[in-house]
Amino acid sequence: MKGLRITGSILLSFLVITALVACGGKNETIRIAEVTRSIFYAPQYVAIEKGFFEEEGLEVELTTAWGGDKTMTTLLADGADIALVGSETSIYVYAQGSNDPVINFAQLTQTDGTFLIARENLIDFAWDNLEGSTFLGQRKGGMPQMAGEFVLKKHGIDPQNDLNLIQNIDYANIPSAFASGTGDFVQLFEPQASIFEAEGIGYIVASFGEESGHLPYTTFMAKESYLEENAEAVEKFTRALYKAQKWVENNPASETAKLILPYFDDTSVELIESVVDRYKSQGSFATDPILDQEEWDNLQNIMEEAGELPQYVEYSQLVNTSIAEEVMGE
C-alpha cells in the first residue's frame, strides 16, 4: 500500500509538472500596430526573424495601420497593445486631456526617414530649385511633413508661400499620385524612394534625415495602464528589440537585407541592402532603445516651428526610459 502511495505521488507530480510545462510553453502575445511598412523599421523585422521575441517568450502580431492618426486610433481603441509611430502623436493625445496617456518607452529610429524626390534628374540640386514648384507633401501635423517644413525653412524656403504645397492626398496614396504625374517634388520613405529611382519615375536629391538632426522619429509606445499591468512583457519586448538593434549595428547591410526580404514584396534584396546601408550611414537606426531629452526637445522645436505644437510637454511626462535602462544594464 505504501509503495502504491509513492507510485501515485510520483505519477501526480509528473502530471503537474507536465501541465506546468505545457502552460509555460505558450508564448504571450503582443499586438503591434506599425505606422507604415518601411525598411526604416528594419530592426523590428530583424527582432521577429531572428527569433529575439520568441526567445523572450513573446509572440508578436504585427499589423500596418498606414498613417499616424490611424495608428494612434488603433492603439487608443485597444486594437493594439503597442504602437510604432512618431512621438508627436503621444503629445497630441496628451494635449487632449487623456486620463491614460500614451508613453514612449523604446526608440527605434532617431532621424527623419524620408527623402526628397525630384521628377527630373537634377545633377546639381540646390534647395532653391524648389521655389515655385509643386511639392507633394505629407499629412499636416505628421512628423514627416513637420520635419520637411523645418528643413525647407532652414534653407530659406517658406513652404506656404514659395511652393504649391499639396497635402490633401491620403498617406498611402502619395506614391501613386506622384507616379501618375502629380507634383515636381515629393517626400517619400524607403523603399519607395529607391524603387522610383530604379524605375526612372523620380530621383533622390536630398535626405531630410541628414538635414533635420536627431529626434524620436519613430518609437514604441503604449498606454500608461498597459505598461503598468504588463511590466514584465514590456521588459521582454524591449530586451528583444535591443538585441535586434545591436545585431543590425554589428552586421553588414547585406545580412539585414536577407532577413527582412519577406516583408517587402517585389523588392530586390540588392535594393533593400542599399537602403539599409543608406539608413545606417546617416545614423537613422537607433542603436539602443533610449529616447533622450535632447531628442525630445528637438521634436517639440520642430513641431512649434510648424505651428503644430498644442502645448509644451515635459520629457518626464511622456517618456519612460527605466525599462530600456534596465535592459541595457543587464
SSE topology sketch:
Blueprint: H1 2-24, E1 28-34, H2 42-49, H3 52-55, E2 58-64, H4 68-76, E3 82-85, H5 88-95, E4 102-109, E5 114-118, E6 134-136, H6 143-154, E7 164-166, H7 174-179, E8 185-189, H8 192-199, E9 203-207, H9 208-212, E10 218-223, H10 224-229, H11 231-250, H12 253-260, H13 269-281, H14 293-305, H15 315-318, H16 322-328
Parallel strand pairs: 1-2, 1-3, 6-7, 6-8
Antiparallel strand pairs: 3-10, 4-10, 5-8, 5-9
Structure described in brief:
By secondary structure, the chain is an alpha/beta fold.
Fold and architecture overview:
With 330 residues, this protein is an alpha/beta fold. The chain has two domains: 28-111 and 215-328, D-Maltodextrin-Binding Protein, domain 2; 114-212, Periplasmic binding protein-like II (D-Maltodextrin-Binding Protein, domain 2). Helices cover 47% and strands 16% of the residues. It has 16 helices and ten strands. The chain has helices at 2-24, 42-49, 52-55, 68-76, 88-95, 143-154, 174-179, 192-199, 208-212, 224-229, 231-250, 253-260, 269-281, 293-305, 315-318, 322-328; strands at residues 28-34, 58-64, 82-85, 102-109, 114-118, 134-136, 164-166, 185-189, 203-207, 218-223. The strands form two sheets. Strands 2-1-3-10-4 form a five-stranded mixed sheet, with helices on both faces. Strands 7-6-8-5-9 form a five-stranded mixed sheet, with helices on both faces. α2 packs across α11. The longest helix is centred in the first third of the chain and has 23 residues, at 2-24. The model is unreliable at 1-24 (pLDDT under 50).
